[in-house]
């Protein structure tokens, strides 16, 4: 894949400089939409255009941190490790508000980002999501960018994941290749999680998938039956097994 960096943080910051209301919302739609085609011009779908002051404050922290330089360096490093392919993608950072306001449900939005991002990648975009519930850090930037890149690489060679097993394999690959250190579980918890998830590996219904990947907190928040799993237990298992298979 050919990767290039798409700076988006200042664009988002400028939108939040406008008074919160319909004027800002209309400018948000105008900014991310191609005036001629009506298609997506910038991948800002995960942004909350009606967000409150905590969002521009966090963007300011990321800008001060040098987040886009960190992202560029991560992209440059990833380019050296990805198999050659004809696809070209622009990679950018988008701040998504899972902290204050009803625009974003973290679990549903993260699932969509991890598993249902084909509409974005088809348009030549890769987005690293920075969540407002997490403090600004270089690790967050690097993990967000690299997992998104390696997930896209994986999907160039594999069909879209439809079952729990396929989703775990995809996400395990992306996180391991990105060098992520979280989520993590101890050996006993990994064994327990493996046992709970084993009967559901072929499941593809949203309720079972969400509980297996994200745990009971997510299941309860979305009104799905819990499976007796801790937060992100399935993702922790996926990362552990991907690391083990890469040794």
The total of beta strands comes to 3
The low-confidence parts are: none
SS field, number of helical segments = 12
**Can you list the strand order of the major beta sheet?**
1-2-3
- Estimate nothing, just give the exact number of structural domains: 2
Tell me the strand percentage band. 5-15%
| Through-space gap between termini | 25 Å
Q: What is the structural class?
A: mainly alpha
Tell me roughly what share of residues is in helical segments.
40-55%
- Report the radius of gyration as a whole number of Å: 18 Å
Arithmetic mean of pLDDT? 95
Shape: globular
H/E element order: EHHHHEHHEHHHHHH
* Major sheet size, sense and barrel closure: 3 strands, parallel
Question: What would your notes on this structure say?
Answer:
The chain is 54% helix and 8% strand. The protein has helices at residues 9-16, 22-32, 54-65, 67-79, 106-115, 118-121, 138-157, 164-178, 187-197, 206-214, 216-222, 233-246, and strands at residues 2-5, 88-96, 125-131. The chain is globular. The two termini are 25 Å apart. It has 2 domains: 2-157, no CATH class; 164-246, no CATH class. With 247 residues, the chain is mostly helical. The chain has a 3-stranded parallel sheet.
